[in-house]
Amino acid sequence: RRNQTLRHRESMASSDRYNRLLERSLEFCNAFSSKKPEDILQEFFSPSAFIFENGPEYMRSKLPFLAFPFKGRKNADSNGENSKTMDDYFSLLGSILRCTGMKVPSGKDSDLTEGKEGERLSISVDEKRGIVSVCLHASFEGIKSGRGWNEMVSYILTWKEENGRELIQSWLIWADAASAWNSVNDS
Fold it and tell me: What is the CA radius of gyration of the chain?
């Protein structure tokens, strides 16, 4: 009987964390296109977290937020001039591209939602490891060119509880770097 009670408590705790991670991940995805970067960083990220957007290194000449780890927050103790922070990621991204729309999954684990043009929106939560994967639809445009595109974006968010709140430890991003390149390329 005692083992059964312990298993039930573990199951309930796991279920609570599952719901917290699902809710926080959806809140984060919705905030990305509607809140200021400093508010997003303050509300969702651990001060020691990192962001990494996957993409070819050769594109960094025009898309400097690609293929580089952005760690921690800007403060008086910055790690030198070669170190880039999460604040720098948002600053670089926002100076080059604008998010003009985002459609996130409905909020059910492993739910595949059909969106426009057949895109598949999904979210999957591993509450034991604190990992959430999200596939969403986003629209972007180049700030200078005004050229826009629609794409599917995938995130892997790693969460950890700090001071009673679930905060992002790492944000890995897979997006359409070629379309971003074309939107900022002069030729």
Answer: 18
Q: How does pLDDT run across 33-61, given as a tens digit for each residue?
A: 889 999 999 999 999 999 999 999 999 99
Supply the pLDDT for residue 46: 97
Strands 45-53 and 165-174, by their bridges, are: parallel
pTM equals: 0.86
Instruction: Scan for tokens 């070819």, then name that residue.
Output: 56
Q: Which distant-in-sequence residues (6+ apart) come within 8 Å of 57 by Cβ?
A: 66, 67
Alpha carbon distance 116, 78 (integer Å): 43
Residue from 17, 29, 53 nearest 123 by CA: 29
What's the rounded Cα separation, in Å, for the pair 178 and 104? Answer: 22
Strands 148-162, 131-142: pairing kind: antiparallel
- Per residue, the 3-state secondary structure of the chain, as one string, reads CHHHHHHHHHHHHHHHHHHHHHHHHHHHHHHHCCCCHHHHHHHHEEEEEEEEECCCHHHHHCCCCECCCEECCCCCCCCCCCCCCHHHHHHHHHHHEEEEEEECCCCCCCCCEECHHHCEEEEEEECCCCEEEEEEEEEEEECCCCCEEEEEEEEEEEEEEECCEEEEEEEEEECCHHHHHHHHCCC
